[in-house]
Every structure is written in structure tokens, then in C-alpha cells.
Amino acid sequence: MTAVVATAPLVLSAGDLVLALAAENPEPSAGTSAGAQTGPHLELLGGPVEPVGGGVWIKIEGMPTGWDTVTVTSPALTDPIRLVPKEKGATESSEAQKGAGAWIRSDIAPGRYALTATSRGRAVTTTELTVKPQDPALIGRFVAGPKGGNLGRADSTPNVTVRPGAEIVVLLADVVPAPDEETLTVKSPALHGPLTVEKDSPDDPGCKCDDGSTVYAGHATVRDDLRPGTYALTVVSHHGQSTSTAQLKVAGEPVTSRRHWLIGTAAVLALAVAGGFTLRRRRRRPRAA
Question: How many Cβ atoms are within 10 Å of 230's Cβ, its own excluded?
């Protein structure tokens, strides 16, 4: 004789939405396929394994009609993920909605982390995310050259020579960038200070050789007091895991000395013109009766 066990729905406090999550729909395990699940369950759209610093995109399915918001949290994520119905009366969230993704923290160890979905203060389902080590950098090139150039072989390091005081563009192309690194910092004794290079920079010359890579670029002015020589440019990426170095050759007359001469000459000419104009006005002033 088979015993029959009654199941009772979960009812939230007065005024809250009634979530009829029957006990015969147990919480799915991480390995259960989404097609076999009938209760609320999370789906990791990029798969259950992501690298440190990578991105997570999530949707929820199987919610009761009338739900409004689900918040997904995890110690692995930089921010909570907020999910809303795909449309009025839908039991699932949209895959393309704004806010359905978050970055995985860059300071955590690889491992397995729980993702918990809550609605109106109550947990409705959980799933598991496996975080693997971050993919190593694959630097296509790290170069510098005069601003306005193509940064090709002829006008970029190590073949190009720039003058003290010249403006240069620094570029790093990474085939496998760290997903959450939007900017990098370049350091060199040839520059006045650290230089920030960034994605989607207007300084990127758009070389075909960088196709398939993420390009970081930025511009700076070479110090005008440098002696002729070769100076290292260094950038650290992948949160300290990758270091790239380029050699910048500096020689010739400082650009800024010529600029100062031109500015000084222009100032003298302007003063001379202004003085002549004033003198002429004084000469033309009518005599008093």
C-alpha cells in the first residue's frame, strides 16, 4: 500500500503575491536540463562555467503568473542581477533585458559558487556557477608612435624615433582580453606620468592587423628634457597576470623648444602691432581749441 503525502503551497504574508510552488516540484539540481523543469529555475545563458572576471547572463523560467521582480545574488558577482517578466503575464524573463547580466569578481578564487534568486524577500530557486581561472593574455602587439600616424611597422616602435616633447599614441592589442578591464595603465620614464589607455579610444588608428583583438589606446606627450636614448614603456594587464614592454627611441631637437620660440615670436609681433596701432591713434587725436 502506497502512502499518499499531501502537499501544501507556499503562501507569502498578507498582501504579497501567492507563489504556488508545490512540493512535488523540487528545486532542480545544477545538472538537470531546463526542458525537464516545471518550477522556477535559473538558466545561465553562457553555460555553467565562466572565467574569473568574465560575464554572466541569466534568465529565469517557470515563475507563476503575476510575478514582478526576481533578484539574483552571489558572492561571485560584482552586483545583483534584477530580472523582470518578458511581458505581462509571462512566466519567464527576457534574455535581452537590460540588467540581466553582471561581471564575475576579479578578486575571487576559482571554484563553485551558488546563485540565489529571491522574490519579495523569499528564495525561489538556486543554481551553481563554476568559476575557472582567467584565460591568459594573448598580446598581438604593444607599440607606440607619433600621433596621427598609422602605427604600422615603419612609424611605430621599435623602428620609429620620436623627438622629446612629441605627442605619441600608445596601443595594446589583446586577442584574449580580461573581460572586465576597460582601461589599462602605461608607465614609462619617457612620459610625464602614468598614461591611461582604453577600449574604443579615438586614438586607435584602426589597423587591419588588429582585427579580432581588443584594442586599448591613448595619447601622451614625451618629456621635452630627455636625452637621446631608448626608454621602456610597460603595461600590466589581466589584473597583474600579464606584463608587456615596448622600447621607445627618443632623439633630436625638443619639439617644445621650437613651440616656445614660435609662441614668443608671435607674442612679440602682437605687442609690436598693438603698440603701433596705439601710437597712430595718439597722432590722429585732434588738438584742443
Answer: 13
Residues 147 and 235 in one domain: yes
Report pLDDT for 38.
76
Q: State the distance between the two ends of the chain, measured CA to CA, in whole angstroms.
A: 134
- Cell (9 digits) for 14: 498578507
10 Å CB burial of residue 224 (0-12, 13-18, 19+) is middle
* Predicted local confidence at residue 5, as pLDDT: 40
Q: What are phi and psi of 5, to 5 degrees?
A: -105, 125
Q: Which residues of the chain have pLDDT under 50?
A: 1-35, 261-262, 277, 279, 289
Which SS3 state, helix, strand or coil, does residue 215 take?
strand
> In terms of residue numbers, what domain contains 109?
34-132
pLDDT of res. 233: 98
Residue with cell 547580466: 101
Q: Give exposure, 99-111, as e/b (b: 16+ Cβ within 10 Å).
A: ebebbbbbeeeee
Last residue of a domain, one of 132, 150, 179: 132
Q: Which positions ≥6 away from 242 have C-beta within 8 Å? A: 136, 137, 139, 236
DSSP 79-96: S-EEE-BSSTT-SSB-SS
Q: How many domains does the chain have?
A: 2
Instruction: Say what the pLDDT of residue 97 is.
Output: 75
Q: Are 131 and 222 in contact (CB under 8 A)?
A: no
Cα dihedral 146, 152, 158, 161 in deg (nearest 10) = -30
Amino acid code (one letter) for 86: K
Q: What is the DSSP letter of 259?
A: H
Tens of pLDDT, residue by residue over 49-61, are 999 988 899 999 9
CATH code of the domain covering residue 115: 2.60.40.1930
Residue 179 is predicted with a pLDDT of 82
pLDDT score of 50:
93
